[in-house]
Structures are given as structure tokens and as C-alpha cells.
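Worked example

This section walks through a single chain of length 763. The input is the sequence exactly as stored; nothing has been trimmed or padded.
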Amino acid sequence: MRSVRRRTPPWLRRPFVAFVAATGLLGALAGTPGTGADRMATAADTANTATVFYYTKTKNWSSTYLHYAPDGGSWTTVPGTRMEAACTDWVKKTVDLGSATGLAATFNNGNGTWDNNGGANYALGTGDITVKDGVIAHSDPCADTGPVEGNKATVYYSTATTGWTTANIHYQPAGGSWTTVPGVGMETACTGWWKKTLDIGTAGSLKAAFNNGNGVWDNNNSADYTIPTGTTTVKDRTVTKDAKDPCAVEAPDTEAPTAPTKVTASATDTSIVVGWEASTDNKGVTKYQVTRTGGTKGTVVTDVGSTVLSDTGLEEKTAYTYTVKAVDAAGNTSPASAEAKATTGEKAPAPATGTPLGTDPRKDPIYFVLTARFHDGDTSNNRGGSQHTKSGNAADNDPMFRGDFKGVVDKLDYIKALGFSAVWITPVVLNRSDYDYHGYHGYDFYKVDPRLESAGASYQDLIDAAHAKGMKIYQDVVYNHSSRWGAKGLFTPTVYGVRDSQWSWYYDEKSEGFEYDGLTVEPKSGKSYYNGDLWSTAEPSGNTCVNWGKPTGGKSAEGYTLYNCQWPSPTSGMFPKAYYHQCWIGNWEGEDARSCWLHEDLADFNTENTTVQNYLIGAYNKYIDMGVDGFRVDTAVHIPRVTWNRRFLPAIQERVTQKFGAEAARNFFVFGEVAAFVNDKWNRGSVNHSAQFYTWKERKEYSADDEKAAIEQFDYENGQGTGNQPTSTNAFLNGNSYHTPDHSRFSGMNIIDMSVHDGPNRS
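Given that input, the structure is written out below as C-alpha cells.
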């Protein structure tokens, strides 16, 4: 049995407290009238008040209410108390706080529109208080005391990379509200720079984003920029506080660069390659002056931007001497380097322009070049694209299209000196996608991408320059797919788009007469990656895309409404079945790996269609005619072997033979990418997806219809399996005896696999 403890009532346990309270009360009642009056007067004198001034110009409200709660007290009834006019653009309200030393406050127009400091409410003190565009200060804005200036932030923004023709700054003082989009206009400061001085009140910093007023933004990769008071520069996503005025006139640079060192000169035939170590300079070297003496032409001075000069067309068996000087932007010139000497040999026979070298490709070590990322020979064709900021390229001042043909030409001697006699370059056709520097998103297969060319350094110039040095050019080509925007001249899809409050940032305003080439900046959008020709709000004639323009029910990452037919897709019906396949790859060893899309950026051609075949054959005939020495074929495994053997490989051979003869055709090197995923002869038991399979001609007759033939060939060869594939004596050695190799069943395609494509084989 538990004992129960009785509790004493609380009032019986506090006799002393009760006594004191009672005594105090009696004392107060017994006090003299004068004493009590004095106490009441003192209490009234010490009551706190707050006069709140609110700035209305940016709100344009017809009336303003103050909804508040003194510290420790209760909120007023919504909408609060109406504020009265104070002076131009200001209303006010004086609040009796009693003993409270502050209040929490929000403002509204009496009709449901609120300013609650972004959900945090305003914490206000006593006395005169101003609230202006989210910034709190202590003053009477209507008193005739002269203007009171807040903290200043002077912001310089560089548009040298973006090429914008105007700039706005959209900002939020710390603890305040954002300006109305697009923000406030900046003024031209000097070439490539815009400037704005901002009054941010008592705030010590601000958040900012920049835009060109036409929907193109730089918001620091969605993180916004934090900018302090004082002078700040923002250039290519780099914020420099307490910066020097970038437009200020600098003191003259009088310091010359150091002299170049380790100058070397080496001769091949009647060409001499001169190289040297880079000079240093307090501002940077802009060029080098190479002085040549010797021969009958006397002294020749050549300016170069790199640390190598390929001096060609010299006299035979002649000694030449070279010295090099460095020059900076101010024209300061270094002392001359030490001399380097070389003697030319006999003149080599020069091949005609546009003619392949036509020699045995088995003797050529091949050097791979991703052209747009290799070497920047001409900065004027550098372009960043739509992902310039998001990709991180802007932060490193490294646009995706930076290298070019001029850069390759400048480095041919370097490549040759490494021991290579052939250069495999990435695709040269005009590309179109968000990130297309690599060349595999072909848009106009008949046009060389202008972002790779320069004056005096066209694609033809590169081919000719390589041939002049006895080097070959192998061009990477794509027959399997186009860009997601189709292939110009064959089919380009029109997507649904609308320039409303959600999507005007993405869809560029249409510009009649403007033609996308990847290089030229469209004036309205300020973009070289303009997309105004790709979308339509109205359903285009002949549209086959299902549920055109109807909301999908989904939202974008930004929370925007998504629509049907807003993005190219194989399953939407957007692409015509005759020209493009209509599915995604599901089985990488199945037939669908040859007849479905690899990726949303790679619209998969129906390569069994005659129109598609003719489009591709005609395009690549152009580059054969320019004198390339061979093709590296991208994604070759995703096209049926029977299509290669019937259409594309014979077309290549026929064109080379027609233009340059049978011997040139025999040595025109074609090597295809057949990406094996295992370290074995046969790729996971699928002969149709194995490297050596593509080196063979067909051993069976199939349907005259290429599409049917592709299925028949796949089923037949997979049915034969890996144990019933043909063999041949195609090596020089037969046992221990040499013999003539048998290439009678060779398809004409050589093979590379995944280890050469992008990494080691995987098992």
C-alpha cells in the first residue's frame, strides 16, 4: 500500500510574501497625495515612443498600415493602424510603446499586399525610425536637416567576355529587399566596363546579379554575388573588393621584358623551326620579334604570338641565324636573345593544295587533337555558349571554344617533333547544342564551324599546312546522329516555346534574317548561341509532335510550367520517322543499340533511309574533296554493318578514287569506333557489337530494302554466334613462313575501341 503525501496549498506556504505585498499595498494607499502624483508623473515621463517613417515611392500604395507588436506585447488587429502623410514619398505613425524598448513591425496596403521583410518582420527601436526599401535607419526624413547619405557601393561590371551592349544590376542590400527586375541600369565606364554607385543605407554589403535587360543573366551560377561597400569589380565571376578603378589611367609602363632564352633552330628540307623559352614581364608579353639573317633576302623580322616559329620556303642549302626579342603591350622591347643557327637542305616536292598525301597509313603514328581545347591561335573566335557560367568556364576565363585551326597550324612543328606524322582532329562541321565544343553535335554537316576558323587559317589552310610538312589530317566524322536540333538541310525540329514571365529568359526573341553560325552574335539577345529560330508558340504546319503546347503537369528545376513538345525527344513524334529513329536504347547489346537514340543531345539518324544516306554522303564528299587523308568514324557500332558495307564505305572509296585515283583510295584510312565494354575478343557474346566484326564484308545476301536487311543481318550473325565467325590468313606470317596476306574479305573499315575512345576497357 502506497502512502499518500498531502500537499499544502501554495497560498498557505507564502505568508511572508503575502505580508510584504499587503504591507506594500497599505503603504501605497497611505502615502500623501503629492507623493503619489509625483510617481505617476515620473512614469508618464519615461514611457517610450517610436515614430515610424515608411517610404512609399517604390510601393505606390494608396494607403499604408503599420501592423506591430511592442516587445513582449501583442500584435495589433490586422491590418494594423493607418499611417498618415509625413512629406513627399513618406508616411509616418507614432506608437506608444509603454515600457517596451522596441517593436516588431510589418506594413501593408490594407488590401492584402504586405511588406514583412521577407518573412522576418522588421525589428525597430525607439525614437525616429525610417524603413526604406527594406533598409532601417534612425532619422526623420521629413526634417529640414539636409540629406543624410548611407553607405555607398561602387560596382564595376565587365562585359568583355559576354559582349553585352547594356548592363543592369539587380540588387538587395543586406537585410533589405530586392530591386524590381531587371534592376537599375549601369552607366558606361570605359571599353568593356559598366559602373553604378549604389546608396545602400546602413547595410554593409549587398547581393547582386547582372543582366543585359533582355533575359540573359549572370547570377554567379545561381549563387548571386556578395558585394561590400567601397569599390568592387566583377569580371568573369571574380569579385575583387577594394579594387582599383579599372578605367583609371595607369602610369606608363617602362619596364621591358626579359630576353628569351634557350633559343633553338632545326631544319627540315627548306623549313626551319625556331623555338625558345617564354620571357617574363611585369604586365605580360604580347608578342615576339624573330630576326632572321642569311640568304639573299637579307634581314627579315617576323612577329609571332607564341614561342615557336615555323619558317618555310627558305633557300636550299643556306645557313640562317635567328635572334628573338620579347615585346609587351606598351611597346617595351627586351634585349635580343643569344643566336641560334641552322642550315637548310634540299627543297622537298610540294603536294598540290587539296590533295591527300596518299601514302601507306600503317606507317603513321597518329596524334589526337580536340581542336576547340588544344591551342588558342586566334582569340577573336572564342565563344562561351549558354553554359559558360554554369560550367565554371567563365570563372577560369576559359570559353569552351578556345582552340582553333590556327592553333593547330601553330603547333604542327611541335606535334611533328614528338614523332607523329598524322593528326586526328575532332569533327569540324557546324555544331549546335548547349555544350558543343567537341564537335559531335553536328547541325550543318555541309559547313565548317566558324568558331574553328580564322583569316588565313581555314580548314583548307590547316590541311594544306599539314601536307606541306608531310603530315596527314584524319577528320573525325559522325554518320550515326545529328544534334538534338536536327541536321540543317535535312530536318530541324520546331519546339513549343512561349516568352512569358517564366520562359522569356530562355526563348530568344525572333530575329528575322539572322542565321545561326555559332560565331556571330545576334544583336537582340546578345548571344552567339541564339535560339529564336527553333521555337514557336503556334503549332507549325505539318507538326507531328503529340499534344503540342499542352502542360505536362510537371515543373522545371526553377518551378516553371513544362509543356509537351518543349524539348526534342525521340518518343514525342517530333522527328519524322523516315529520317530519325523513334526510341531510346534499352539493350546495349541488342538491335536497338543500332536503331535508337544514345542520348537526348544525339538525334539518331535512320541511316537505312536513302535521303539520309545521300545527305551524309554528299556532306562528307566535300571534305574528301578538300584533301583529308582519312576518316575516324564516331559511333560506328551504332550503324548496321550491312549499311556500312552497302552504302557508306563504297561511297568513300568511290569519291576518293574519282578525285585522286585508286592508289589514294587504297591509302585513305577509315577507322571506326566500336566501343567494346569488356576485355575480350567478343563483346559480351554479341558479334554485332564486337570490334573485329566491322572489318568484314557481308557473307550472305539480304533484302534489297536496307531497313529489312539491317534486321536480317543482325538476326543471322547473332544466330551464328561467336564460334561461327569467319577467319582469314590476313597476316604476313603463316606459321613460320611469310606469305601475301589475304584481304579479300576486308570491308574497308579499321577499328578502334573503348580504350582509345575515353578510357580503359571495362569488364
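What to look for: The longest strand covers residues 319-328.
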